[in-house]
Amino acid sequence: MGWSQVYAEALSLIGQVEPRVAEATRQELADQRSSLKLIASENYASLPVLAAMGTWFSDKYAEGTVGHRFYAGCQNVDTVESVAAEHARALFGADYAYAQPHSGIDANLVAYWSILAHRVESPTLERLGAKSVNELSEGDWEELRLTFAQQRVMGMSLDVGGHLTHGFRPNISGKMFRQLSYGTDPVTQLIDYDKLLADAREFKPLIIVAGYSAYPRRVNFARMREIADAVGATLFVDMAHFAGLVAGKVFTGEEDPVPWADVVATTTHKSLRGPRGGLVLAAKEYAADVDRGCPMVLGGPLSHVMAAKAVALAEARQPAFQDYARRVADNAKVLAEGLLKRGVKLVTGGTDNHIVLMDVANFGITGRQAESALLDAGIVTNRNSVPNDPNGAWYTSGVRIGTPALTTRGFGADEFDRVAELIADVLKAAAPADSPSGPSKAKYVLPDGLAQRTKAAAAELLDAHPLYPELQL
Ligand code: DSN
């Protein structure tokens, strides 16, 4: 029985219970097949990874850790969690790996609470001669809670590509910590490490967070380590976006966060090309506290997803993954150069990771209009603010794109140059629609036929690189 029959049978079974879900699942495949997926944080997991997620492991509770569960009968969950952690340790050269986080935000919460436990809770318990928080008097507990609330974190500014979970108010990290952002140089738009060090000396953070979700450049983690050491901070790296480039040995030496950071968190579904989920890597001193992630901040582990993480991490240890990661970075450069030569302005003037951040203001449209016009033309992206964005975080002046997904489909330099041409043509032709109060910031107009012509051109590229060719669905 081939993959087609397996999935056809599965969809038929689903359809017998809820046809709308079966139909939406089929349609999602059709939509993903027929559009240029350029969302920098998305990818296509392999069929073995997808298959590993759809099993009866979903039915098992397994709170606790390998060999130390709060439920009986977890021997098979122990196997998949151990295998996932074993692959993660080997792939990234980490002392310790924790495969339970359900998402990137969850992984970051595990990281924060492991650091708070290690740096704040443990010394307090030791000072008071207590073995656990349950032994503290009401007064000591209250004092410890207030001490948690006084801790400080420094993270990259949202305006220049940081992430909400790096201490910003809409996320719980901003409510847990006092936060100070670090930014980029106004001219080069690159991280200003000297200013970061000077600010860190003043602010004295417990934690410095390195990592980004919309910064198209590499980070020098050795320099981040020096800065953290200079102020006594723990270095936490959120590599959710670029984990695939670390796994694939594109980022090595000072650009590989794992040897420099105390704790590293990631998602598994972006450039790493695994199932939707999270992972935490830690230096030995933090391992025991990371292990307390469930039930500290996580619900029971999703064992079916841990099984899929194990499969994806095994794939990422194959030589072919290093080739993939190199192509992701090479393709991003081609995409950036293709856009630049066609008059599209890019934040930082280019890229050296998998992200390209376009500033569309000079076309007289907002990021939101650009995102919608591109979608109309079969190109899926997401709008994103650019440094000092006059249009704010909702309309924005930027559009973020990336190469991981289309590289998985087999796109190379020629295809990405053509993609750049299609994008540039749409951006140049798009214009704000009129609204009763003047030019709209959301609605746009495109010349007749352009969206259809772009879709047809995209279809030529996509048809030459089919998605899941094994599936005749
Ligand atoms: N949603 C992820 C991204 O698109 O970068 C980050 O949370």
Tell me what the structure shows.
- This protein is an alpha/beta fold.
- It has two domains: 57-316, 3-Layer(aba) Sandwich (Aspartate Aminotransferase, domain 2); 322-463, Aspartate Aminotransferase, domain 1 (Alpha-Beta Complex).
- 47% of the residues lie in helices and 15% in strands.
- It is built from 19 helices and 17 strands.
- It has helices at 3-17, 19-33, 47-53, 75-92, 104-128, 138-149, 172-176, 193-203, 221-231, 243-247, 284-290, 293-296, 303-316, 319-340, 367-376, 392-395, 404-408, 413-429, 450-464, and strands spanning 36-37, 64-65, 68-69, 96-98, 152-156, 178-182, 207-211, 234-238, 263-267, 278-282, 345-346, 355-359, 379-380, 382-384, 398-402, 431-435, 438-445.
- The strands form five sheets. It has a seven-stranded mixed sheet with strand order 4-10-9-8-7-5-6, with helices on both faces. A four-stranded antiparallel sheet has the order 11-12-15-14.
- Helix 7 links the parallel strand 5 (152-156) and strand 6 (178-182).
- Helix 5 packs across helix 11 (284-290).
- The longest helix is centred in the N-terminal third of the chain and has 25 residues, at 104-128.
- The two termini are 14 Å apart.
- The model has no long low-confidence stretch (mean pLDDT 97).
- It binds D-serine.
- Residues 41, 104, 163, 213 line the site of D-serine.
